[in-house]
Amino acid sequence: MVARIYFSFYQNTLSILESKDLISGIPLFKSFEDFELYLTDRELGGVLWRDFKTGDQNLSRKLCLAMGALFDFMPEGESLPYRPPTDFYNFDRERGEVIFFGGSFNPWHEGHMECVSQCPEKNLVVIPDYNPWKEGESRRDLPYEQFLSLCEKLKGRDVSIYPGFLGVKESNPTINWLPLVKVEKKSLLIGADNFEKFEKWKDYQLLLRELTKIYIVPRAIGLDNLRPVEKRLKEINPALEVAFLSSHDFEGVSSSEIRKR
Which pTM does this prediction carry? Predict the structure, then answer.
């Protein structure tokens, strides 16, 4: 399915995009079989995935969905013979665990990077998505371009970046998809502000039973405010591990405030 979405993209839009100088240096394929042969010995799409700048919201969303399907451990993921590019996929299935770091990241800033830097485990998956709770937050017009920008900002980091939720129009409460992830141990990396209001998350009690650990990055909120939350959450899942990470210089940085400037 993923390869066919790519091939359809080529067939339907390549000549238009080239005529507008939106992409260049992309091989032309006469048949889907030629395209599959090209992919067999390469990372999926090779450098091609970086060159798509469609200028079209619908195509941009479809590309996010197609790239998201490369994450075989995610609910909509597929098992494919193609190697996902390490620019956005660094997941090791043999570890049997995954840590998710979700957010709107609109824009990505130093506080987000600090969260990535402090994560003590491998298999961190960054999940950009729409956050309806945030003031001024809305779907970006070209989500695939947001994905490309995030890949560039995290270049050289040993993380994965999942674009699948950027391809859908609805928000994705964690409880809707995390239980379906095909990995045994599932954990979250979140800011202290999100941990403080964890009990407002959709079906948070069910979600807690799915989690192994919660890693909490400081956000200018005292531990005195967080310990009672930790106690209540552990009453629901006594096996849950909660780890408070180190203070840092960017605790007050906010995407919402940056957007107001």
Answer: 0.81
